[in-house]
Amino acid sequence: MTTQKKSLPVAPGAALVIGLVVLVMTMAGCAESVQPAQGDSPRFSRSVSAAESQTEPAPTPRTLLALADILAAQGKDKDCEFVLSTCIRQHPDFVPCYNGLAELYIRQGRITEAADVLSEAVRAWPNDAVLLNNLGMCHLIRRDYRTSLEFFTRATASAPGRSKYQANMATSLGMLGRDAEALAILRQILPEEIAVHNAQVLQRARQRVADTSENGL
Hints:
This protein is mainly α.
């Protein structure tokens, strides 16, 4: 849930911070009553073969998630949302469907709903780094940098050494004006020259956001 001058070489992870700055920014069964056909006795049911009596196995959560991915790729967002919601309802312990539904909502600009889905999941799995990071992204998009920093910090603590979560922490710190702390984190995951460049990008992004807010846009 998501430009040509000569530039410095971008090491792995460098584009991540810049991308974040730019960002700051039928399964339902229908039960039908069965009427006896003309000529059938209303008192006795017909015998059913063994093959006919077997029911289809319920889809697994991974099957539902795979179906949702296919529907999303086809642009069938309503069907995708229905499948993911069904998966969460039927398999509330399957974390990937929460992330999938939140990603769909973010792509549609439904940030509050995405945050609600992820918050529900985080209450059940408070140390899941992916959930924490994704919830931080929701707050980052909403320009709630203080809250986003809280969740990125928790994600980093749950998965030490993940440069993606550290880069997100640096982004929130930079947008809060805590430039020295942002640069210190960037230096841990990027070469010096690129770390400094990204810190400067964050400073410019913060200024653009401030200018936009002052102009009421």
